[in-house]
Amino acid sequence: MTIIRIDKKDWAPGLEKLNSSYRLFGPVKEQDFHNFKELAKGEQPDFNCLNTRLSPKSIVQPQSEIMLEFTLDESQADHHIMKEPAVNDKPRAVLGIRPCDAKAFQLVKLNFDTLEHKDVYWLRNYEASTFVGLACDNPCSACFCSTAGSGPYNEEGLDVLLVNAEDHYLAKTLTPKGEALLKSAGWQATIEPGAAEAQIAAQQKSAEERIQSRVYTDNLRGQVTNELYEAPFWEEVAFACINCGTCTYLCPTCWCFDIQDEVHGCAGVRMRNWDSCMYPLFTLHGAGHNPRGTKTHRVRQRFMHKLKYYVDKYDNGIQCVGCGRCIRFCPVNIDIRDVIDKMNTYGTCQVDQS
Amino acid sequence: MEPAKLTNHKKGGRLENPYLPYPVRIDDVIVETEDKNLKTFKLVFLNPEDENKFAYEAGQFAELSVAGQGEIPIGIASSPTEKGFLMFTVNKVGLVSSYMHSMQAGDIMGVRGPLGNWYPWEQMEGKNVVIIGGGFAFTTLRSAIIYMLDPANRKKFNEIHVIYGARTPGMLLYRDELMEWEKRDDIHMHITVDGTDDPDWQYNTGFVPTITEQKAPQGNDDTYAIVCGPPIMIKFTQPVLDNLGYDHDHIIMSLENRMKCGIGMCGRCNLGKEFVCKDGPIFTLLEINQTPKEY
């Protein structure tokens, strides 16, 4: 691992160089919030935000994505036969992704990269991406990354970690992909690692101390699935929920999708679109039966998936990185930290279960 | 004994893109039932080499793909011992299935699969197999019966019983084959209908649970029951099997849920951490008992 010093005056020229071999993505201000966007030539990522409103998951899993294409024109020899569309696999540089969101990609990868099947669309986008993280120095009150398997300086899922200093960034090179990107931008000023590491460690300690919010997840794995499923608190958790789907939409670790055909004239595409376990149509059978027919079923599915099914299936912690978006933007103030607490302590403390 | 853990690794080669269907041509369409709501589609691969890639086992399903309409997960009704075609029986219920009912021989569509696990054939070798089916949930059961009756396979199994019921004689699937199996002495057929005014009806009358009580052999270590049918049939058949002494790891069921991807990724068909599409659709009742009942 090497540490590179990038003077801020060299930042824009470096991006200019990167532009020829990478598609650049970064946070951009839209109205009063930020979102990840593909940067136009010369456009700068705006690092003056705690984090983007939406997670950057759309860079790897677009909200709508063409999977296959076809023609219904029977004069064509290949009518009604599905074809793979042309692929743009030009490398992507994701600039300023927060450590929590980068870790989220690693959690989600377990779903799309399995022994039996590989989701070629997700993996192609993921593998084309180089993640240049930006360490968090000012976490907010809803951030609980440090007890959700991540942290403000967490390096998992990143190729480079940028640490903001006054007139420069310290860039920790974490993978060969990251090294290649820094080289391609012409950022090569290695510095004496001892002092840089000490500076990073000090900033990291201060950032971690600012995170006041904690969750305890140690009992989740030991809980019996069906007992947790039948727990009496689900009605209470779901009571205020309006099934709007905002939580799943913002969440960096929600990956569920729908597949739909769209036709215009004789030309058609098979697309996939983000979907949400909050919506009744998600599980509705053709014959009318719905195994998750009530909002309590659906709210329970969301939390059980993240905090129990995922935990049991992969033995890789919870399917949550503590980014806090669902807490900040839930219109009825449902707080995943409270639900984690209810699930983690279920059966251990009778007083709290009323 | 250990719960019957059904392996779900895939056989044969696969296309690199698991969402890309094999192109097929509809070879024949057969109206199965008197209400005309069930049709059987016989499909032939446009590229003959795709048939080898689509190596399947009885109990698996596939996504039927109709360009411009979408995909539906349907159990494979043909048996791996039948070569040169695939067969699917489709109930007219939603967008894709209704559209398929208007398609004809010669039309081009797609098949993606095979998907899911299959009936635990190795585990059932040397055992008695009791097949209990109701209504149109008889498709992969047909596949299973054809597979077991194949001369190369019949000796692998001990007694075979089939209890199959529908509302009326005209609602039974695969009637010609049922009648042929009735004539054989290596399979015990117990066909039943809820009711009929046909004076010549020479088989059983009564609901599937009742006929199961009367005709099914006692449960023991050497006997497996495979149960597929509407929820109401399953609900009333289970206590009958309990009374007959079937352990829950000897009761095998094939489940359905709304699906899109068919490969465990899109997130909707799960019972707890198990995906019906990938970890199932075949589960033992013992396994199902350990999951939330979201099917």
Task: Kindly describe this structure.
The complex is a heterodimer of chains A (354) and B (295). Chain A is of the alpha/beta class and 354 residues long. Chain A folds into two domains: 3-60 and 87-210, no CATH class; 225-353, no CATH class. In chain A, 31% of the residues lie in helices and 19% in strands. Chain A is built from eleven helices and ten strands. Chain A has helices at residues 11-18, 99-112, 120-127, 176-185, 193-210, 225-229, 233-238, 246-250, 295-314, 325-329, 336-345, and strands spanning 3-7, 23-30, 33-38, 64-71, 92-97, 129-134, 160-164, 168-173, 257-264, 267-274. Chain A has a seven-stranded mixed β-sheet with strand order 1-8-7-6-5-2-3, sandwiched between helices. A three-stranded antiparallel β-sheet of chain A has the order 4-10-9, with no helix packed on it. The longest helix of chain A is centred in the C-terminal third of the chain and has 20 residues, at 295-314. The N and C termini of chain A lie far apart (52 Å). The mean pLDDT of chain A is 95. With 295 residues, chain B is α/β, with parallel strands linked by helices. Chain B has two domains: 22-115, Elongation Factor Tu (Ef-tu), domain 3; 128-254, Nucleotide-binding domain of ferredoxin-NADP reductase (FNR) module (Rossmann fold, 3-Layer(aba) Sandwich). Helices cover 19% and strands 28% of the residues of chain B. Chain B contains seven helices and 15 strands. Chain B has helices spanning 49-53, 95-100, 139-149, 175-183, 208-215, 231-243, 285-289; strands at residues 22-31, 38-45, 61-66, 70-75, 86-91, 108-115, 128-134, 160-166, 188-193, 204-205, 223-228, 251-254, 270-271, 274-275, 282-284. In chain B, the strands form three sheets. In chain B, strands 10-9-8-7-11-12-15 form a seven-stranded mixed β-sheet, with helices on both faces. In chain B, helix 5 (208-215) runs parallel beside helix 6. Residues 1-15 of chain B have low confidence and may be disordered. The interface between A and B is large, with 53 and 50 residues.
